[in-house]
Automatic annotation (TrEMBL), chain A:
One of its GO terms (biological process) is tricarboxylic acid cycle. It comes from the Bacteria. InterPro entries: SdhC_prok (IPR039023), SQR/QFR_C/D (IPR034804), Succ_DH_cytb556 (IPR014314), SuccDH_FuR_B_TM-su (IPR000701). Pfam families: Sdh_cyt (PF01127). GO terms for molecular function: electron transfer activity; metal ion binding. The chain crosses the membrane at residues 21-42, 54-75, 96-116. GO terms for cellular component: membrane. Gene3D superfamilies: Fumarate reductase/succinate dehydrogenase, transmembrane subunit. CDD domains: SQR_TypeA_SdhC_like (cd03501). Belongs to the cytochrome b560 family. This is Succinate dehydrogenase 2 membrane subunit SdhC. The gene is sdhC. Its cofactor is heme. It is found in: Membrane.
Length: 126, 160
């Protein structure tokens, strides 16, 4: 570790870094998502056309990444609230982070088929 | 009691004679951070506290709203392949889902904008850069929130 840095590594710092990165990514997607949804006020065709890109295999992978970012940000956000408001939160922050990672892995495995299933069928036939 | 009186008497003997009198007044020491006419008006508020609290409260609500949204849009009933104009029209026919989406839009945009404000404050070191990045952020946020609100309230399922 370089001298004179505030960054301490380990679970505390890296969960903070991941929370920032996922938060910024989600926020940028949110701009795009409000804009594409606004096309329902332009015409049904315009909306259906742009939603069609959401159904392509490549964007399906991006959606899986979006789900990954949102689930981590949501679960780690609950951990942050526990650290802030639960008297024993700071003492168990590491255990809570590994709980978050565990729940995240389970949910990501669960999201595999619903989010990517149609892309697999499109690529390799049903 | 006797110890106190004797020590007080001792002080009286040694330090009792004052260096100052009416012809030699003691120097006036101003109170630290004394407010004068030149002091700018205090701009301190509890804004950051409210912002901190808002992140946690909106975060809890957003966990429910956004994960429910993902479940409906990406998992249930064929996932993303069912989404289209007709699907949107069907959901926004109900005030429940209109309010759901409206609350999600406002809370997520404000939560995200406040988060990005923190990130800009942390990493943009030059005053000008920080100012303009935040102006860009606020402009984009206001535009997006108003556009989204307008779309939810003026949606017309029979436009074609």
């Amino acid at each position: 570790m370089p001298a004179g840095t505030l960054y301490r590594g380990r679970e505390g710092m890296w969960s903070w870094v991941a929370h920032r990165v996922t938060g910024v990514l989600i926020f940028f997607f949110l701009f795009v998502h409000v804009l594409d949804t606004a096309l329902v006020r332009v015409s049904p065709e315009a909306y259906d056309k742009v939603v069609a890109t959401y159904k392509t295999p490549i964007v399906a992978c991006l959606e899986y990444g979006l789900v990954a970012a949102i689930l981590f940000h949501a679960l780690n956000g609950l951990r942050i609230i526990a650290v802030d408001f639960w008297a024993k939160g700071p003492r168990y922050q590491k255990q809570m982070l590994w709980t978050v990672v565990g729940v995240w892995v389970v949910l990501m495995v669960g999201a595999l088929y619903p989010v990517l299933g149609h892309a697999v069928r499109e690529l390799f036939g049903s | 009691m006797s110890a106190e009186t004797s020590s007080a008497a001792a002080i009286g003997e040694v330090e009792g004679a004052s260096l100052y009198d009416t012809d030699h007044p003691a120097p006036l020491i101003e109170a630290p951070r004394k407010r004068t006419k030149k002091t700018p008006k205090s701009t301190r508020t509890n804004f950051e506290l409210y912002g901190w609290m808002f992140m946690r409260l909106s975060g809890i609500v957003l966990v429910v709203l956004v994960l429910g949204h993902l479940l409906i849009q990406l998992v249930l009933d064929g996932g993303v392949s069912k989404i289209g104009f007709a699907f949107v029209a069907g959901r926004w026919a109900s005030p429940f889902w209109q309010i759901w989406d409206l609350a999600m839009l406002w809370l997520a945009m404000l939560h995200g904008a406040n988060g990005l404000r923190t990130v800009i404050n942390d990493y943009a070191q030059r005053d000008n850069t920080r100012f303009w990045l935040k102006m860009l952020l606020y402009t984009a946020t206001v535009f997006t929130v108003l556009l989204g609100t307008l779309v939810i309230f003026t949606f017309d399922p029979n436009m074609r």
